[in-house]
Amino acid sequence: MSKLSGAYYEINHMNMVAEKDQWVNQIHPLVKLVLTILYIADVVSFSKYNIAGILMMGIYPIIVFMLGEVSWKDSIRRLRVVLPVVCLLGLFNPFFDRQVVLYLGKFPVTSGMFSMVTLMIKGILTVLATYLLIATTTIEKICYALRIVHVPAVLVTQVLLTYRYISVLLKEANTMMQAYALRAPGQKGIHFKVWGPLAGQLLLRSIDRAGTVYSSMVLRGYRGEFYFEDRGKCGRKDYCYLVVWLVVFFAIRVVL
Amino acid sequence: MHMADALISPAVGGSMYALSAVAAGYSIKKIHLEADPKKVPVMGVMGAFVFAAQMINFTIPGTGSSGHLCGGMLLTALLGPYAAFLTMIGVLLIQCLMFADGGLLALGANVWNMAFYGCFIGYLIWRAMNGRTMSRGRIIGASVIGSVLTLQLGAFSVSIETLLSGITDLPFSVFIGMMQPIHLAIGMVEGLITAAVLVFVYEARPEMLSLAEAGEKKERFSARKTIGILAVIALFIGGGLSLFASSHPDGLEWSIEKVTGSTELEAAENSIYRQAESVQEKTALLPDYQFKNTESGLGTSFSGILGSCLVLVVCGGVCYVISRNHKKKGLS
Predict the structure, then answer these.
(1) Which of A93, B71, B195, B296 could cross-link with B143 by S-S, CB 3.0 to 4.6 Å?
(2) What fold characterizes domain B5-219?
(3) Does A222 touch chain B (CB under 8 A)?
């Protein structure tokens, strides 16, 4: 599968997963957004030698995975983007921080090794938390939550439109790439002589499409502002969900 | 160059969110002033274009590797800096949520490192080279210089943010030494790909490249505004940041210390140096950047502010005299 069609598949798949009728999916998007940001901030603020504390924070993704019936396999695939960089940076720690803190048999364990492991765990947990947010909440709902906290309408509308047209343009780019590949078999990537015309054609088509999109938006009553469907206020269930998790995070923080 | 959440501390992440929010707020204000409702759909579709185009691999001749175009530079040339910046925020948010490319906590830092430099600094370069006349050469030059410079700034910011977050034990110099050269090569390639696309647009639909220019409300250079901004920055550094100045010796003192064992050279009794030193001690208003006989931080701040003001007065006076002489010569 090419990179373009892979991305197209990923977007559609995530949209389908997020629209499932699970208990976690029904939680108010603002609660899930706030909780995710607080969780990530909490995880990364743990000391770089506190492996026990960070491991305990793994309880959040484990439980949400079970509640939302989200696939572990898909989430692990997402780690491939982040983990190499995090691991590369972490690998230097044992070389620069060589203070021995304990011995496993005769093997000395240094504080640099501890910080390397915690950095990797932090990388995994933060990616999983973001994945769980998007796997249980659609982009439209996240944008709605952003509007509740008064993120300007221009920005939110722009995010929504970009998201809406990504799959359209990915499909178009994929068609162009397939046509190119058929005319230049066995060639990896795009030859430098056609860099400009290929991406330029896609750009011009996109601009023309933007004109059509604008016309259709005006015909449907667009006057420079988007109106979001009211998805209701946070209920008792949402507040309970938030409070329970905050208590858990706080308890882990205090105990470890 | 997308930073992951694990590479940033909440304090640094929060600060970068605040900085990016200020830039976004200013851009939104500017977009509203332009009052062009068509711009929002164009921004949305252009964001999707950048997203899709960044997934196309362009073969780099003779290397066996590939690169992709520089989104910030391309958008700023087509939409202007404010619309381009907001568009890039959307792209980065979607990349973070849908593809785990960059973290949610690190979003502010990623916006700053990639969108701010790419759109605003990139625009300055684009406008400086293509503001009056546009040609293939100028477009290629602006694209390459813009991409290289903005990527270098972005990579430098990543190093600083990681250092301030205290994530890695890698020495700063080693980290910088790894980041900057890699991004120099990436910047060159991205610049050439961006240039190829912009040259194509210039030849196919040249009016599109002047659209961004027309959309921006042309602002005259205001000396008063510039001096005002510089004065505020000078007061902030002189009065505020001076309190956090390092107490360690500077480069010269450090070198002397390595040779003689002390940061100051011993002078002979009754020498000219001693006499000059005693005159300096009697006449100095703020010895060692402090009020006389006190060591309060107020003295340091006062010294910083007073020094900044004096430099401003002296430099401003010299410039005034020079410009007056030029005018006189012109009239005669």
Answers:
(1) B195
(2) Arp2/3 complex 21 kDa subunit ARPC3 (1.10.1760)
(3) yes
Please report, in tens digits, the pLDDT of each residue of chain A (256 residues total).
577 888 888 888 888 888 888 888 889 999 999 999 999 999 999 988 889 999 999 999 999 999 888 888 888 887 887 788 888 888 888 888 888 888 888 888 888 888 899 999 999 999 999 999 999 999 989 999 998 898 988 889 889 888 888 888 888 888 888 888 888 887 777 787 888 888 888 888 888 888 888 888 888 887 766 676 666 778 889 999 999 999 999 999 888 7
A181-188, Cβ contacts within 8 angstroms, sequence gap of 24 or more: A187/B59, A188/B57, A188/B59, A188/B66
Sequence letter at residue B150:
T
Interatomic CA distance for residues A124 and B4, integer angstroms: 10
Measured CA to CA, the distance from residue A51 to residue A49 in angstroms comes to: 6
Domain boundaries, chain A: 20-137+233-255, 152-219
Could you read off the pLDDT of B178-233 as tens digits, one per residue? 888 888 888 888 898 899 989 998 998 888 876 555 555 544 445 566 566 666 66
**Would you give the distance in Å from CA A207 to the centre of its chain?**
28
Report the gap between the CA of B218 and the closest CA in chain A (Å).
23
B99 near A CB under 8 A? yes
Q: Quick check: A130 and B97 CB within 8 A?
A: yes
Structure confidence by residue, pLDDT tens digits, B268-303: 666 666 776 777 676 666 676 666 666 666 666 666
| Inter-chain touch A192–B59, beta carbons under 8 Å | yes
Sequence ranges of the domains in chain B: 5-219, 226-331
In this complex, is the C-beta atom of A165 within 8 Å of any C-beta atom belonging to chain B? yes
ipTM of the complex model: 0.87
Q: Which residues of A touch B91 (CB under 8 A)?
A: 162
Q: What's the token pair of residue A42?
A: 């909490």
Nearest chain A Cα distance for residue B241, angstroms: 26
Instruction: Give the chain A residue whose CA is nearest to the CA of B178.
Output: A89
Angle between helices B71-79 and B207-215 (to 10 degrees): 80
Is B44 in the A-facing interface, judged by CB distances under 8 Å? yes
- Are B25 and B33 in contact by the 8 Å Cβ rule? The answer is no
Restricting to A residues 98-127, those with a Cβ less than 8 Å away from any Cβ of B are: 112, 115, 119-120, 122-123, 126-127
B26 touches chain A (CB under 8 A): no
Cβ contacts of B165 within 8 Å, gap of 6 or more: B7, B8, B9, B11, B12
DSSP codes, A171-237: HHHHHHHHHHHHHSTT--SB-GGGHHHHHHHHHHHHHHHHHHHHHHHHHTT-SS---PPP-----HH
**Shortest distance, CA B159 to any CA of chain A (angstroms):** 11
Would you call B41 and A213 a contact, using CB atoms and an 8 Å cutoff? yes
Q: Which residue in A36, A93, A187 is closest to B169 by CB distance? A: A93
